[in-house]
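Whether sequence alone determines local backbone shape is best considered at the level of individual chains. When preparing material for the folding task, we compiled for one chain both its residues and its backbone structure tokens. The sequence in question and its structure tokens are set out directly beneath this paragraph.
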Amino acid sequence: MPEPILYSDALIEITPSRVTFRHYGIFGGDRRVLQSDIEKITVKESSLWTGKYRIHGTGNFKIWFPRDARRPERDRIFFAFLKGKRRVIGFTVERAADVQQIFQSSGLIRQTDCPGEGKPS
């Protein structure tokens, strides 16, 4: 029986056990990550310093952004830190509040720097 989809849009799909980042690779392939492989997720206000204008790829070889042509319009950016990996996945979604609630409920969000948002420890 297939897993229920907790959230899905053109950029990401979340199930209870995995997260699929769409348009991840240089040629547009998806990347599936088990939620158990994610150490933590932080949320930051979208700005020049957090990758607001990074449409796809990396600028510092540490954070990789899946393609999102509308990232400059989004209000927050999520950062997924993977266990045992140096690279961080910086990603945006179409309904950030919904995704933030899902990740907070699963205990993955450790920090949020968005105005008006609570800052879980």
Q: What stands out?
A: Strands lie at 7-8, 12-14, 18-21, 31-34, 38-45, 63-64, 76-82, 88-91, 109-113. The two ends are 35 Å apart (CA to CA). Residues 37-113 form one domain. The chain has a mean pLDDT of 92.
